[in-house]
Amino acid sequence: MSSEKKQDESLTYVSSNVGQVTEGSHDPVFGEITEDGPNYRNVGWLGTAVLMMKTQIGLGVLSIPVAFDSLGVIPGVIVLCAIAAITTWSDYIIGVFKLRHREVYGIDDVGELLLGKPGRIILGGAFILWWIFVAGSGMLGISIGLNAVSSHATCTAVYVAVAAIVTFSLGSIQTLGRISWLAWLGLVCILTSILIVTIAVGIQDRPSAVPADLVWVPDYKIVNGDVSFTDAITAVSTMVFAYAGTPAFFSIASEMRDPAHYNRSLILCQSVVTGFYLAIGVVIYYFCGSYVSSPALGSAGPTVKIVSYGFALPGLIVSTLLFIHITAKYMFVRILYGSRHLVANTVVHWAVWIGCTLGTTVIAYIIASAIPVFGDLVSLVGALLGTPMCFQPMAGMWLYDNWSKGRDFRTTKWMLMVGWCAFIIVAGTFLMIGGTYGSIVTIIDSYKQSGGSAAWSCADNSS
């Protein structure tokens, strides 16, 4: 079948007005879509933008002020803007590649196009591990919030289990179209929460973490000249994590009514995310300095912490259920690809779907309980798995579609883009290796301080 015919078939979409599928509609990923099964193509461009934002704004933003403390304000802003620019380009390439290759559902499809079967296995495995780790860090964030609002009313291990149960239940909703309203709720809640803290630290006399007998002198750093390599690379990895929703954009684009509107969703998402990250990171760090908390919601004192976490909890829950849903949906599509059970509400359909969401949740719960140090977990997954999900494959995608154009006539633009792709591959590899090393060193130090007893701990992790 010609590529033109495939594209024509893939343009048979759900009506944006009535939200119903025409009998016999065909999708290159999900196959024949009927009214008897879930509607996998029912997310509008605005809902897409919100889903994109919710995969980004959540856990990562809560560690940005601490990253600024490691680097200093000016280097921190420069690094954040550089990561924003690179990931925005990566996100844009996903949209372009998806329009050219409608059959692509996940980053493993890209791996197979670039490197054959080994590429599919490597990138597919990395994708699953990445999102399971992120879901684990999400559960950890929820447990911190529950501890904060309840004043540590029960064992932290119980709160992690509660987080797993709640996010499994909501993450098992079948389609992103049905989840998008939760994304709206989660986004509003997390933004409100962080704004409360930002305003509070601006009007208070001194950071809450400053000892009462100590004279407070603002100690924010314009440039931190004494930062070690481990601390610096860990801070950069934390910022990568804040933008590491990128690999989920494949799945989100696949459930859009019209992927041609992808770019408008992307522009809205990245503009809001970057502006918010810069404002929150700079303001909170300016007023708190080295006494900023990680997560940042604890920076304005116990009362504000309770209020801010009260608002943040729905946002953290929505982020985590999205991580579970996207991971499970990826496995679900791969298992039932080409089968009628993929788009029909059969027993097999539901058994596989619930099995995928439950399996993802259980593994994420184990990770959250075994590595219960929020900042360390964020930086580790950001370096080890987030970077190779957001940098190198997208450079490979551009080269895959454009390398042959330079065989006959190499324009200046083509050569510049090849150089840019080479830079992205090298920079991504450096960040992956260096960031993983720094994060592992930090986790080892944390376990030495706790005597190795922090796993499945009952201790309050919100302080």
From TrEMBL:
GO terms for molecular function: L-amino acid transmembrane transporter activity. Residues 43-440 form the Amino acid transporter transmembrane domain. Keywords: Membrane, Transmembrane, Transmembrane helix. It comes from the Eukaryota. The chain crosses the membrane at residues 43-68, 74-94, 121-144, 150-170, 182-203, 232-253, 265-286, 306-326, 347-371, 377-400, 412-433. The keyword Transmembrane helix applies. PANTHER family: AMINO ACID TRANSPORTER, AMINO ACID TRANSPORTER (EUROFUNG). It is found in: Membrane. GO terms for cellular component: membrane. The lineage of its organism: Eukaryota, Fungi, Dikarya, Ascomycota, Pezizomycotina. Its main location: membrane. The keyword Transmembrane helix applies. It is a multi-pass membrane protein. This is Amino acid transporter transmembrane domain-containing protein. InterPro entries: AA_transpt_TM. Belongs to the amino acid/polyamine transporter 2 family.
